[in-house]
């Protein structure tokens, strides 16, 4: 018996919003927007850069708290350094990822890593927030670096897919957490077509990092466009030239989402408790130790 694939189609699409955040960086924010609080467990998608940095460049210290969620930074260019009040430190280079679970609360900061401070160069990254499911909002903070060699690379037609999180074609991405996120960096070196079979039972969205892509017969998506994709068990992408994409999603949110700046909880009472914890110093103290 032949199984007929259901191809995911674009439900709606539009450009990310430009804004200024952190140490004065221009970012393009694709999630959230007015009609999209999240895609699966991903409740924030920021794309910053490429930003040219001179040798010895540094960001002003910007330690800030988080609670009730996780951060995932995937570096496209340059070098990035992390520090947090739980005592974790880490440096990633292009093609690597760092994941931090804020849980009940932590203070962290990020800035240019040693190699870009030494030589200068472009800094470009995708930063995502992953919502922690109900019942896991107050777990202990944690941190991991995922090296380039730990991120599976799959050939998908004329593109390469770098599996950051989730399962695909027998491979598993290294970012593995309560919310069961799915995230993949897809690279067309010179255009062509890619056919992918992402998990059929998850919400899914597509962000164009650079270049342009068509999903099925939909009108082309350009740089910094984000598309919400419909249900299905197959996805066909085509590009006319060099193109980079982020495909992301996962199971839908399992509880109400209440946001207040860097705190993400299920109720206003939890938000107020997180604010009190931060003000009382229960999330620790962070002093930048790098140049």
How is the topology of this model organized?
Blueprint lengths: L9 E6 L1 E5 L3 E7 L10 E12 L10 E3 L2 E9 L1 E6 L4 E5 L3 E5 L4 E7 L1 H6 L1 E11 L10 E5 L6 E4 L2 E7 L1 E2 L2 E2 L9 E7 L3 E5 L6 E8 L3 E2 L9 E5 L5 E5 L3 E8 L7 E3 L2 E3 L2 H12 L12
Antiparallel strand pairs: 1-21, 2-3, 3-4, 4-11, 5-10, 6-9, 6-11, 7-8, 7-10, 9-12, 13-14, 14-17, 15-16, 17-23, 18-22, 19-21, 19-23, 20-22, 24-25
Uncertain segments: none
Give the CATH architecture. Sandwich
The ordered H/E elements are EEEEEEEEEEHEEEEEEEEEEEEEEEH
Number of DSSP strand runs:
25
Distance between the termini: 63 Å
Q: What percent of the residues sit in helical stretches (DSSP H or I)?
A: under 10%
> What is the highest CATH level, the class?
Mainly Beta
Structure annotation, total helices: 2
The domain count comes to 1
Beta-strand percentage?
A: over 45%
By CATH's scheme, which homologous superfamily applies? Jelly Rolls
Defining traits:
single chain, 291 residues, mainly beta, Jelly Rolls, seven-stranded antiparallel sheet, 25 strands, globular
Quick gist of this model?
With 291 residues, the chain is mostly beta strands. It has helices spanning 114-119, 268-279, and strands at 10-15, 17-21, 25-31, 42-53, 64-66, 69-77, 79-84, 89-93, 97-101, 106-112, 121-131, 142-146, 153-156, 159-165, 167-168, 171-172, 182-188, 192-196, 203-210, 214-215, 225-229, 235-239, 243-250, 258-260, 263-265.
């Amino acid at each position: 018996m032949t199984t007929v694939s259901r191809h995911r189609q674009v439900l709606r699409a539009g450009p990310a919003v430009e804004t200024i955040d952190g140490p004065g960086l221009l970012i393009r924010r694709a999630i959230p927007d007015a009609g999209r609080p999240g895609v699966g467990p991903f409740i924030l998608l920021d794309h910053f850069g490429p930003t040219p940095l001179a040798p010895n460049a540094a960001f002003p210290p910007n330690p800030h708290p988080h609670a009730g969620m996780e951060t995932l930074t995937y570096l496209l260019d340059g070098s990035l350094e992390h520090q947090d009040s739980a005592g974790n430190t880490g440096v990633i280079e292009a093609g690597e990822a760092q994941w931090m679970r804020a849980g009940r609360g932590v203070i962290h900061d990020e800035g240019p890593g040693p190699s870009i401070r030494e030589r200068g160069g472009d800094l470009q990254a995708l930063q995502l927030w992953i919502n922690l499911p109900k019942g896991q909002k107050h777990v202990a903070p944690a941190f991991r670096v995922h090296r380039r060699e730990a991120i599976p690379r799959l050939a998908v037609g004329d593109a390469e897919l770098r599996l950051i999180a989730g399962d695909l074609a027998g491979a598993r991405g290294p970012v593995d957490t309560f919310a069961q996120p799915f995230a993949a960096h897809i690279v067309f070196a010179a255009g062509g077509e890619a056919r992918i079979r992402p998990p059929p039972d998850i919400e899914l969205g597509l962000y164009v990092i650079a270049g342009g892509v068509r999903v099925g017969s939909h009108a082309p998506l350009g740089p910094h466009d984000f598309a919400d994709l419909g249900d299905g068990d197959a996805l066909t992408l085509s590009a006319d030239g060099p193109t980079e994409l982020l495909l992301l999603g996962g199971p839908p949110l399992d509880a109400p989402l209440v946001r207040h700046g860097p705190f993400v909880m299920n109720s206003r009472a939890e938000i107020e408790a997180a604010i009190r914890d931060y003000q009382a110093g229960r999330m620790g103290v962070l002093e930048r130790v790098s140049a």
